[in-house]
Amino acid sequence: MKRVVSLTVNGREVEDIIPDNLLLIDYLRERRGLTGTKQGCDGGECGACTVLVNGRPRLSCVTLAASCAGAEVETVEAQAHGGRLSALQRAFHENLGAQCGFCTPGMIMTAEALLRDEPDPDEDRIREALGGNLCRCTGYVKIIRSVRAAAEELKA
Ligand code: FES
Ligand code: FES
């Protein structure tokens, strides 16, 4: 079955005919062309597909697009404004928090939700918040450092 669904994606109101079984990750990547959201494990295990739904991190590979009716969805594409990287994107770049970069969109969106709620998290809190986001490259230290650096910049 299909239904007409209205939602907001990266600040833009959209209305689409969406099959009930369409996953949010496929909707975002294939229908909306937002390929920044990555598909890693495809089974709710790696966090690469994390987006924000009403400000909370959500695994888009295990979320039905139709369940986001009326919701506000944010992807990593919403981070940069006017060609300027967000504080988190800059911090990941400057602190080598992104190596292959595959996990980075999910890391950044999870960190974004954290910093909105808790502007000054310590390293343990950052580790806890990012516990569902896996990275095969960095060993996590540079990722934690990146989130701390973004928090410092946002505080200044
Ligand atoms: S692709 Fe969604 S959790 Fe891995
Ligand atoms: S930077 Fe490669 S998986 Fe995290």
Count of DSSP-assigned helices:
5
Distance between the termini: 50 Å
Question: What structural category characterises the helix and strand content?
Answer: alpha+beta
Order of helices and strands: EEHEEEHHHH
Which ranges are low-confidence, i.e. pLDDT below 50, for 5 or more consecutive residues? Answer: none
Largest sheet: 5 strands, mixed
The radius of gyration computed from the alpha-carbon positions, rounded to a whole number of angstroms, is 15 Å
Number of strand segments: 5
Strand share of the residues?
A: 15-25%
Mean pLDDT: 97
The rough form would be described as globular
According to CATH, the fold-level topology of the largest domain is Ubiquitin-like (UB roll)
CATH A-level architecture of the largest domain: Roll
Q: What's the name of the CATH homologous superfamily of the largest domain?
A: Beta-grasp domain
Bound molecules: FE2/S2 (inorganic) cluster
Strand order of the largest sheet: 2-1-5-3-4
How many separate domains make up the residues? 2
Provide the CATH top-level class of the largest domain: Alpha Beta
Helix content: 25-40%
